[in-house]
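Sharing a chain and its predicted structure for anyone who wants a worked example. Both blocks are below, sequence first, tokens second.
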Amino acid sequence: MTSTPAVTRALRLALFALPLATHAAGQPLVSDETIRARWLTTIGAVAGPQGVTVQANGFQGTDEQKRDAYREAIGRLLQEPVRSTVDPAIIQQTVRAQDRRWIEALRASGTESRVPKEVDSRSTNPVTRGLTERSGLTDLVALALNGQNVVSSDATAISLNLNALALVSLADPDVYSELYRYQQHAFARRFGGTVTLGSKIPEKELTGVSSLPDFDTLVDAVGWDVKVRLIGDKDPRSAEWYPLTIGRGADLNSIAAVVSSLVPIGDALLVSGLFQDALSHWLTDLKQRIARSAQLTGKISGTHLRNDSGKNKYTAALLFDVGVGATDVTANGTYAVTNDVSLGVDRLFAVKRFDFSAQVTSHLAGGAFATGRTADWSLGSTGTFFVDKASVPVPLQNTWKIFSTFDVPVGKAAKIPFSIIYSNDPNALEKSKYLSGFVGISYDFAAIGQLFGQTN
């Protein structure tokens, strides 16, 4: 994740404004008296070991001694538990401008680059050849175009990706920027879907079998999928993070404001700076915690031929994401059935298969291609394991592929993906190993809020 000094300052200002907004809403925070009592107890415990004395709610000693003592006292004070839950009513009553400032600051700080969105349905899109798909959904609507040959429209697929929230409040941009509105449709936000049109693909990409006589025949396919987020939410606007973003954040800043007013006037600037440093570290930990959190999504999809009968492919999948340090790990498990596959004119059969894939994604060059966004480099592998081989009239062997993708951000919402895929195929009639890939472009219209004058 990337963070510039300007973004950090904006984030600090946004957080320091939260206690004011919360007090304005009439919601109870830790009382000033409680904060004062905690502070006096803390500085009394710190003074002796640090070689200073307590005077006027602060410390007396050399400048270096006081800095060390205040840093120790502030660290102890901020480690104490303050608030673990947040009344949802606080979100509805919080000042709207402060909401937007907080969301914009948190997202601009680099958190959004770790939200695992995928808008081209990579695990089931015929053109993307079954690569690992991330578990996130678009906030609104997104378009993606992927091609196996950048100059050939015959091998190009266009995907329309839609979140159910867009169907509920497409014309209401506040639902994406204001916390209380965003959570009014929390259930709808769990659902998304994709329609993929215009792809002409080799039949083997549909059936998974390259030992049939017509395995390389191009077929005109259309696909669809529905995704449901089952566990977790890596979006910082989610109610799952309210105890930290709105509750803990507001309380910590309230503590900073009260303590800064208690210490001697000559130490106020020093204490204020130390609180900002401590809160900056807390914000970094918060962003990392959101990034490391797990998210699981379920998916069902279908791929159908437009001009031919049979060979309908249906897939069920689980998509999992978790952060590990500065990288993200994604794993997919899918089960697919392609029915009514023909061999001649009198024999129909079904091809059943499990696919397991995993990838590691690194976030590189923050801000180099687009402000506040990173380029994503992924390295992964996929294994295909055929089921009920005895019912298939041709011999089948399991296959695997290794792939690398590089997604380059463009502007605020576009992305250009490149991929290289190396695969073995012991079932192929001609080649046992080959290189392939795809290139494309996608645009996530979640940024459409800007068209309505929103800041996010």
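Comments welcome. The radius of gyration is 27 Å.
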